[in-house]
C-alpha cells in the first residue's frame, strides 16, 4: 500500500522533509504539481544555488546552509538528438510544466565528483527548460540568499532567461566582448559579483557597467588595455585580475592614487596575478613610506573578500602597512614577483 | 475515574472509535502533549474519547508509550540504525495501513518521539530514489480523482452561491416587509390629520 504523502498533516510532512537531503526533496517535488505545492517553502533553505549552463546541458548545484563543503548536484538535464532519446519515457513536473524526459543513469558531475540525477529531453529550446527549472527552484526555496549562474557557452543564450534574483555570474566561454557583457549587465543591474573566466576581446572604457559591479574577477589573458581599463576606472569593492602581463605601472599608480589622492573610495581588495613568463613585479612598496607589517593582524576573509587559501600564496613577512594621506585609512600591500595583493584594513571591526 | 495526581500508577480509560474502552497508565499517557494540555491539570471524569482512531491503532500507540516510559528523556530524532531491537520489531510488526493510522494518531496525540521515528521511517523509504520510484512509494491522486474532486468543489461552490443568493433575496423581502407598516402608519396619520383639519375648518 503506497503512502498517502499528500494526505499527511502538515507537521508530519515537514518532519519527513527534514529527514531528506536536498536531492531527495528536489526529486520529490518533481513528482507532481501538487507535491511541489505541498512542500514548497517547507524545507530548510540552502545557502547557495548554482546553475551551470553548458551547451545542451543544465546542471543545478546546491550548497548546504550549515555545511558549505556539502554540495549536492541535484539535477542534470541533457538536451539530446532524437536518436539518443531512448529508454522508458517519463513525465516530470518542473516549475508547473510537464516535461517529457527519459532517465539516464546517474552521471558523475565532473565539477563536484558526485553522482547527479540525469534526465534527457529533446526539446528544441534549452531556454524553456532553464526557465522552468528556475521557476521550480524559486517556488521550492523562495528565500534563496544567493543564486549564481555559470555560463559556459553563449551560442543562442539569451540574457533575459536569467532570473532577476541572480547576484553572481561567471562567464566561462571564449570570445566574450563588450556588447555581450553590457547587455547582460544592463538587464541584471543587481549583480554583486561578475567573473570573466574566458578570454575577453576588446576594451571596456570608463563608462562600462562592469566598473560599478561590487566584485569583479577577470582573466585578462594578455589583454593589457583591459587590465589598464579595470585598474584605472574600477569603482567597486573587490578586483581580482588573473593571467595579467606587464601591469606594474598601472598597479603602482592605483596604490599611489589611493594613498595620496583618496581615489577609489570603495576599493577594499585588489589582487593581481601575472601569467607565467610575464615581466615580474619589482618592489611596488618601495616609495610608499610603508611600515613593516606587525605579524599580528592577519587579514580576515571579510577584508579579502575571498577564502583564506590565498594567504598561503604570499610571504606575509614582506607585507607593508600604508596609510591614506587625508583619511587615515590603513591598507596592507604585499608584493612578490608574480602577484600583488592590496587590501584596505577594516579598522571598525578590529 | 481519575484524579489529576501525577502518580504513574494512575490509570486512565481511553475510548476508541468503536466505543470500546481500555486502560492506559498515566505515565504512558503523559507522553502525549495533547493529553497533557487537555486533561493533566483538570483530570477526566470518564473515559477520554479519542474517537477518531480505532482501538487497534490506539493500543499500538500506547504500547509504544508504555515501552518508552522508562527510557531516558527524548533528545531529538534518532537515526533508524540506532533504534533498539524492540523498536524495530514494533515497526516491522505493523502493516502499511496500521503504520499510516499510527502516524496520524501519534501526530494528533502529539507524541514527539513516535512521530519522529515514523517520519524517519518514511524518509528512509524515499531516500536515494528517483522521481519514478518515489511516485510508486507515495500515492498521488490520479487524473480521474482530481477531476472528481474538482467536480465536487464546483458543486459545493454552486450550492454556496445558491444559498448566498437565497439569503440575499430573503433579506430584501424582510426589508420591504419592515418598510410597509411604516408607510402605512405615515399614510393613516396623514389621513387622520387631514380629517381633523377639515372638521376644524368646517367648525
TrEMBL record, chain A:
UniProt cross-references to PROSITE patterns, sorted A to Z: FBOX
Cross-referenced InterPro entries: F-box_dom
PANTHER family for the chain: F-BOX ASSOCIATED DOMAIN-CONTAINING PROTEIN-RELATED (PTHR21503:SF8), F-BOX-CONTAINING HYPOTHETICAL PROTEIN C.ELEGANS (PTHR21503)
Domain called F-box: residue spans: 2-49
UniProt protein name: F-box domain-containing protein
Source organism: Caenorhabditis remanei (Caenorhabditis vulgaris)
TrEMBL record, chain B:
Native organism: Caenorhabditis remanei
Domain annotation SKP1 component POZ: ranges: 14-69
One example of a Gene Ontology biological process annotation: ubiquitin-dependent protein catabolic process
Family annotation (Gene3D superfamilies): Potassium Channel Kv1.1, Chain A (3.30.710.10)
Keywords of the record: Ubl conjugation pathway
UniProt KW tRNA-binding keyword: no
Family, as annotated: Belongs to the SKP1 family.
Residue span, SKP1 component dimerisation domain: 113-159
Pfam families the UniProt entry points to: Skp1 (PF01466), Skp1_POZ (PF03931)
Protein name per its UniProtKB record: Skp1-related protein
Superkingdom, natural source: Eukaryota
Amino acid at each position: 500500500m503506497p503512502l498517502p504523502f499528500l494526505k499527511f498533516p502538515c507537521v508530519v510532512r515537514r518532519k519527513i522533509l527534514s529527514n531528506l537531503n536536498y536531492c531527495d526533496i528536489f526529486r520529490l517535488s518533481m513528482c507532481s504539481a501538487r507535491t511541489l505545492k505541498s512542500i514548497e517553502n517547507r524545507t530548510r533553505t540552502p545557502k547557495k544555488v548554482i546553475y551551470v549552463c553548458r551547451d545542451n546541458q543544465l546542471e543545478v548545484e546546491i550548497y548546504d546552509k550549515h555545511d558549505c563543503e556539502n554540495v549536492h548536484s541535484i539535477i542534470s538535464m541533457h538536451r539530446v538528438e532524437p536518436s539518443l532519446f531512448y529508454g522508458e519515457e517519463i513525465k516530470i513536473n518542473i516549475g508547473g510544466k510537464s516535461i517529457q524526459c527519459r532517465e539516464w543513469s546517474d552521471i558523475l558531475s565532473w565539477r563536484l565528483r558526485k553522482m547527479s540525477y540525469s534526465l534527457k529531453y529533446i526539446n528544441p529550446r534549452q531556454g524553456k527548460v532553464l526557465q522552468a527549472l528556475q521557476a521550480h527552484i524559486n517556488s521550492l526555496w523562495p528565500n534563496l540568499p544567493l543564486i549564481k549562474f555559470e555560463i559556459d557557452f553563449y551560442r543562442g543564450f539569451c540574457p533575459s532567461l536569467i532570473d532577476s534574483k541572480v547576484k553572481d555570474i561567471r562567464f566561462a566561454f571564449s570570445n566574450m566582448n563588450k556588447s555581450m557583457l553590457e547587455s547582460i549587465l544592463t538587464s541584471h543591474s543587481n549583480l554583486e559579483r561578475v567573473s570573466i573566466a574566458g578570454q575577453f576581446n576588446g576594451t571596456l572604457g570608463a563608462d562600462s557597467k562592469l566598473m560599478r559591479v561590487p566584485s569583479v574577477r577577470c582573466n585578462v589573458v594578455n589583454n593589457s588595455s583591459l587590465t589598464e581599463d579595470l585598474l584605472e576606472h574600477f569603482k567597486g569593492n573587490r578586483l581580482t585580475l588573473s593571467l595579467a602581463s606587464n601591469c606594474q605601472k598601472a598597479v603602482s599608480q592605483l596604490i599611489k592614487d589611493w594613498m595620496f589622492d583618496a581615489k577609489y573610495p570603495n576599493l577594499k581588495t585588489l589582487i593581481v596575478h601575472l601569467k607565467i613568463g610575464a615581466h615580474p613585479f619589482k618592489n611596488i612598496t618601495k616609495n610608499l613610506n610603508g611600515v613593516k607589517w606587525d605579524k599580528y593582524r592577519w587579514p580576515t576573509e571579510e577584508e579579502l573578500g575571498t577564502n583564506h587559501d590565498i594567504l598561503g600564496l604570499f610571504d606575509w613577512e614582506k607585507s607593508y602597512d600604508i596609510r591614506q594621506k587625508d583619511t587615515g585609512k590603513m591598507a596592507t600591500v604585499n608584493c612578490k614577483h608574480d602577484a600583488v595583493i592590496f587590501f584596505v584594513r577594516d579598522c571598525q571591526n578590529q | 475515574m481519575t484524579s489529576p495526581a501525577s502518580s504513574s500508577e494512575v490509570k486512565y480509560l481511553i475510548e476508541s472509535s468503536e466505543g470500546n474502552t481500555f486502560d492506559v497508565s498515566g505515565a504512558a499517557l503523559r507522553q502525549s502533549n495533547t493529553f497533557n494540555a487537555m486533561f493533566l491539570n483538570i483530570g477526566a471524569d470518564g473515559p477520554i474519547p479519542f474517537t477518531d482512531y480505532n482501538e487497534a491503532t490506539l493500543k499500538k500507540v500506547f504500547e509504544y508509550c508504555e515501552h518508552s516510559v522508562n527510557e531516558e528523556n527524548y533528545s531529538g530524532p534518532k537515526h533508524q540504525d540506532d533504534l533498539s531491537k524492540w523498536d524495530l520489531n514494533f515497526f516491522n510488526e505493523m502493516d502499511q495501513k496500521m503504520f499510516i493510522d499510527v502516524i496520524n494518531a501519534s501526530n494528533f496525540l502529539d507524541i514527539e518521539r513516535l512521530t519522529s521515528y515514523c517520519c524517519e521511517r518514511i524518509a528512509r523509504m524515499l531516500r536515494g530514489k528517483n522521481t519514478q520510484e518515489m511516485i510508486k512509494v507515495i500515492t498521488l491522486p490520479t487524473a480521474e480523482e482530481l477531476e472528481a474532486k474538482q467536480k465536487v468543489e464546483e458543486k459545493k461552490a454552486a450550492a454556496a452561491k445558491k444559498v448566498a443568493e437565497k439569503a440575499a433575496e430573503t433579506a430584501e423581502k424582510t426589508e420591504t416587509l419592515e418598510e410597509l407598516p411604516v408607510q402605512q402608519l405615515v399614510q393613516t396619520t396623514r389621513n387622520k390629520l387631514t380629517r381633523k383639519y377639515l372638521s376644524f375648518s368646517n367648525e
